[in-house]
Design a protein that fits this description.
- By secondary structure, the protein is α/β, with parallel strands linked by helices.
- It folds into two domains: 3-113 and 271-278, 2-Layer Sandwich (Nucleotidyltransferase, domain 5), CATH 3.30.420; 127-265, ATPase, nucleotide binding domain (Nucleotidyltransferase, domain 5, 2-Layer Sandwich), CATH 3.30.420.
- 35% of the residues lie in helices and 26% in strands.
- The protein is built from eight helices and 15 strands.
- A five-stranded mixed sheet has the order 3-2-1-4-8. The protein has a five-stranded mixed sheet with strand order 11-10-9-14-15, with helices on both faces.
- Helix 3 packs across helix 8, helix 5 packs across helix 6 (199-223) and helix 6 packs across helix 7.
- The N and C termini lie close together (8 Å).
- The model has no long low-confidence stretch (mean pLDDT 95).
- It holds the Pfam family ROK.
- It comes from Flagellimonas aurea.
- Belongs to the ROK (NagC/XylR) family.
Length: 281
């Protein structure tokens, strides 16, 4: 069925909030929001989730897609150890939501949803083989091969941030940890300073680009994608780390591979909702 003919819901279970949107065609037409309280019981947090869905549910909704920051079994619909809701150790989320709303429910982790959202609605549309990198608290990655999402076992493919690097792992250097640990400021605060041409902030993003370049070279060796789409809050600062990232790629062994390779930045509004909705399409 053509995606423009469908009305679906996308649910983003984020670090501080649950946000649900009704999507028709390529537009988010209505949203609802609930705060995530880490001290909530499983029952209370599930009730909160169902409430946000109910607020935008209409009779023409054909399916619900849910993006979860956790280990996900998309077949059974079980989610394990949700990072921001400690009470969610093992939750049959698909079954619970389907029972409540009587429409098909699709689950995946948040990084994979980001990749799929870019494929249906964003910068990944023209590419058969593409990687989506989410630059935020961590380093999330979704993999599109031959126009299809590659999940791996329990949606675990793409955990590039966990690769050993220097005295830790890659996401300690290619996520927000890097700015907080090295510069004692948030990426957001440094971004504002970089706009004002603060030399320390510009230096921070220059160094960040070098570390991200290591991650991107690993991706290029592993997957040889046509494009990498950058998303997440830190991607807004791409103009400040583009030069050092490009320089890091100068040492990539197969330069011919880079002739048509592109790095894009996501411009989707409500990207997490669209990504979760894309699971239904």
């Amino acid at each position: 069925m053509d995606k423009k003919a469908k009305t679906v819901l996308g649910v983003d279970i984020g670090g501080t909030k649950i946000k649900t949107g009704r999507v028709f065609g390529e537009e988010v037409v209505q949203t609802s929001l609930s705060k995530v309280n880490q001290n909530d019981s499983q029952e209370d947090s599930l009730s909160r989730l169902l409430m946000t869905i109910d607020e935008v549910m209409t009779a023409d909704v054909e399916a619900i897609g849910i993006g979860v920051p956790a280990v996900v079994d998309p077949d059974s619909g079980m989610v394990y150890d949700v990072q921001n809701i400690p009470a969610w150790k093992k939750v049959p989320l698909k079954e619970l939501v389907q029972k409540q709303f009587n429409v098909p429910v699709h689950l995946n982790n948040d990084a994979n949803c980001f990749a799929l959202g870019e494929k249906y609605f964003g910068k990944a549309k023209p590419y058969k083989n593409c990687i989506a990198l989410s630059l935020g608290t961590g380093l999330g990655m979704g993999i599109l091969i031959a126009n299809k999402l590659y999940n791996g076992v329990l949606c675990g493919a793409g955990e590039i941030g966990m690769l050993p690097y220097k005295d830790g792992i890659l996401e300690h250097y290619a996520g927000s940890f890097f700015f907080e640990e090295t510069y004692r400021e948030s990426a957001r605060a440094l971004y504002q300073k970089a706009i004002d041409k603060d030399t320390d902030a510009l230096s921070a993003f220059n160094e960040f680009g070098v570390h991200l370049g290591v991650a991107i070279k690993a991706i290029l060796y592993l997957y040889a994608p046509e494009c990498i789409v950058l998303g997440g809050s830190i991607s807004n600062a791409y103009p400040f780390f583009k030069a050092s990232l490009d320089e890091a790629l100068d040492s990539f062994a197969y330069q011919k591979q880079l002739e048509n390779f592109k790095i894009e930045t996501s411009d989707l509004v409500d990207s997490p909702i669209l990504g979760a909705a894309a699971l239904c399409l």
